[in-house]
Amino acid sequence: xxxxxxxxxxxxxxxxxxxxxxxxxxxxxxxxxxxxxxxxxxxxxxxxxxxxxxxxxxxxxxxxxxxxxxxxxxxxxxxxxxxxxxxxxxxxxxxxxxxxxxxxxxxxxxxxxxxxxxxxxxxxxxxxxxxxxxxxxxxxxxxxxxxxxxxxxxxxxxxxxxxxxxxxxxxxxxxxxxxxxxxxxxxxxxxxxxxxxxxxxxxxxxxxxxxxxxxxxxxxxxxxxxxxxxxxxxxxxxxxxxxxxxxxxxxxxxxxxxxxxxxxxxxxxxxxxxxxxxxxxxxxxx
Length: 286
Known about the structure:
By secondary structure, the chain is mainly α. It is built from 12 helices and no strands. The chain is globular, with a radius of gyration of 18 Å. The protein starts with a helix and ends with a helix. Its main location: membrane.
């Protein structure tokens, strides 16, 4: 997991996925999302506030090893995984809603991530890493904000060209995503047993509670409910790993990050299948 090629693959995958989102999402669709303050408020409340609050409660209730505490804090402080739009679509979620929320979280991560980590550091003495705020902001800008902005600008100034490259770009991004998932599973499975039973219970509770928060705060009348649920459990693994490397704690927290990735998929996939069938049933009834 220390190999620099893995970090390069993570950055390239994130960049390509975000560029694909920018090329496929119109600026007007994003503006329409931002014009719905109640929808935006519920989404940010669930992803940015309530999920970290769940983690704080878990760290207070469970006597977890410091490395597990740091790993969960990094995940709680890293919302808006670049792969989430794809995952929410697999759950039957709205592409425009999920992509708009993805961009909003990418922008806010510049502020949300260091502030959230500062709160965890103040509350728990075991969480010692200091956040390199400028490095975190630069990382978010380079691999998330920049490619999305480029994609949106391409739509505005070269719409014909963008329309031609959008599908191939999406295919390449999805292929890189698949390669990354397979590689992380191969490298991470041997580390899964190092986490311990109690930390695995805490991680499972975090995953299930996060999914429940998103499902409960999502709207009842459309497919944004499943999107918000997936966004709550899909933390930004790449950003969390990057911050861990900045603070030289990657070897200690990687087992926790991998365990969350596996348990998140274990819970998220059945939910996605169930929700997609639910939406299909509602469509047939109407």
